[in-house]
Write a structure and sequence with these properties.
CATH class of the largest domain: Alpha Beta
Number of domains: 2
CATH superfamily of the largest domain: 5'-nuclease
Number of strands: 11
Order of helices and strands: EHHEHHEHEHEHEEEEEE
Strand content: 25-35%
CATH architecture of the largest domain: 3-Layer(aba) Sandwich
Oligomer: single chain
Number of helices: 7
Helix content: 25-40%
Shape: elongated
Strand order of the largest sheet: 6-10-11-9-8-7
Structural class: alpha/beta
């Protein structure tokens, strides 16, 4: 039986950006208690979200409305306190720059999926929690010599290579599988490459 923490009782303040709200996985993290404390939603982030939700483009409109639904869901969760703040920096035009300025003022962390915001915040000494990086860190460990079953989805960039994917989206590059698109193969992992963009697995046919 898990103990229930009071809203906002633990953890430092964290400022949430638009990309994370639209992505939606933050609601799963807060629901399980892995992310707790006070989450700050600036009004300028809400305005950006509303602007997207009112977009004439159907895809952007759907993404914006999904973000608003995610926020409503989070407001009813036990482990976090949602704090909507009017604090703004009128002389700063870019939303990302506003987020960094607010984080520095409050000594808060920023939660984002945005690679560029992540870099800018790092350069200015603001701690960032990147949900994409967390997702990559939680992917199952795959070691050289392990056997995987992969569906070859397309040809690779290099000669003779075929491309498949694990269930978590990790790309698997299989040598000598160019002509096997559409087939399911047992492959042996030869190496694993970890980059800032994610993980890539190289394999050969068993």
């Amino acid at each position: 039986m898990r103990s229930l923490a009071l809203k906002g009782s633990q953890g430092s303040e964290k400022i949430v950006d638009t990309s994370v709200i639209i992505d939606g996985r933050i609601a799963d993290l807060t629901e399980t208690g892995f992310l707790e404390g006070t989450l700050i939603i600036p009004q300028f982030v809400l305005q950006e979200l509303q602007f997207i939700a009112d977009s004439p483009d159907p895809l952007r409109r759907t993404r914006g409305r999904r973000g608003l639904d995610i926020l409503k869901r989070m407001q009813n969760q036990a482990y976090v306190q949602i704090n909507i703040t009017d604090e703004d920096f009128p002389r700063i035009k870019e939303v990302d720059a506003k987020l960094v300025a607010l984080a520095k003022k409050k000594s808060a962390k920023i939660i984002t999926n945005d690679f560029n915001l992540n870099k800018v915040a790092d350069l200015q000494g603001v701690e960032v929690l990147n949900i994409n990086q967390l997702a990559n860190a939680l992917k199952p460990v795959v070691l050289p010599g392990e056997t995987l079953q992969i569906m070859i989805m397309k040809e690779g960039k290099e000669p003779l290579q075929g491309i498949g994917y694990l269930d978590d989206g990790t790309m698997v590059v299989v040598d000598h599988a160019k002509d096997l698109v559409g087939e399911k193969l047992d492959v042996v992992v030869t190496s694993v490459l970890q980059t800032t963009a994610g993980r890539m697995i190289f394999a050969k046919k068993q």
